[in-house]
Amino acid sequence: MLTPSFNRYALALSASFILAMPLAAHAHRSFLLPSATLVDKADEVVTFDTAATEELFIPDHAVQIETVAVDGPNNIHPQPENVWRGKQRSSFELKLPEAGSYRISLSNDGLSAMYKVDGQMKRWRGDAESFKKEVPANAQDLNVTRMLSRNETFVRVGDKAGKTEWNSTGKGIEMMPLTSPTELFTGDTTSLRFTLDGKPASDLTVTVIRGGNRYRDALGEITLKTDKDGKISIKWPGPGMYWIGANTGRPPQGETGTLAKPIVRASYSATLEVLQP
Amino acid sequence: MRLRYSFMLGAALTTPALAADMNVKVEIPQLSVAEYHKPYVAMWIENSNQTFVRNLAVWYDVKKKDNAGTKWLKDVRQWWRKSGRDLQMPVDGISGATRAPGIHEASFNGAKYDLNSLPAGQYTLVAEAAREAGGREVVRVPFQWPPKAAQNTQAKGDHELGAVSIELKP
User: Fold this and answer.
1) Which CATH number is B156's domain given?
2) Among A28, A140, B72, B154, which is least packed, fewest CB within 10 Å?
3) Pairing outcome for strands A189-196 and A231-235
4) Model confidence over A144-157: pLDDT tens digits?
């Protein structure tokens, strides 16, 4: 089932937009939030919001939208509509034309650099092409990082059996549900498998947080480690929208990357809905 | 004679208070989380009506460029409502850097922190911690002021703060 060839719908985005995005001082938690994870019939519309925040799922600052990939049943890839980009969040709508399960995936693959010119620290963000134009040749203490991020969620349309298999790109961190990622209930156990560059991501720290933390004192995060096959199991403690996040962490101090061989950092998040039985 | 006696008694009662100090121990727990940042912590004193009386300490990112660390002071919500929003941080003697997990001791001199002018009565030390990408917790420790004898009181937090204890010596 895992075939490398599948279509992605790339949101045509000018490089200038990517560069105009503020350089976030803090990573925070980025998410892709669906207005519904269960829809009763085909042709319903679901809205998706994306942002980064400390207060899930209240938008704080927008994340880059470079590529949105929708993978539906029977190899269909409906296109996002009414794409809207703001300072605090970005949104789009999706009409789901067939019964079945859909994975909606927002991914970014970008470069960032820090360097000094005349003793002044500079930050830059862009891609390999703009790097050559924008980062001066006399840049000192250059450190280049490639950031691979993916924010996903799943929606099921009028379908009894939940799909669990989707294609892998083999890039960065990806998650393959081993049990259905939709129609989850309190007390259910969900198993997920993580990969890094297509290989099992063992010993990866996965954080699970229920939304709405603005209104409670304890964040109540569940911290899990993947096993040697990259697997974790989550027993849902209560209803709500959950954020599941993982990243490869910071590189060791003193390690520097170049354009040819950047430091690679990967991050992943999924939003899953858990219902009250 | 009578007048003189009460004056002396008064002096005898207030003199120790002038020398009284408050020693506080605050435990910041070690947490096993994927993204850890040292918490912002505020400590202040309230009277028996839970009315704000004095600030003791605010530990935040004081070193951040352009005073930018003050942006998240509002996340120390209770302190922010009671005092923080009226302050221009940093404040001498109150602002301090964030602390790593462990037990931290802080000593508040009665004269310097203007505790000696507090009317005698029941007070509460309030410690509030708010952690970036984490949780928030408030711990309240009651005490009598001025201390007539050595006093040790403590309370314990559950997730963002460990034990908070006060030691008072007349």
Assistant:
1) 2.60.40
2) A140
3) antiparallel
4) 999 999 999 999 99
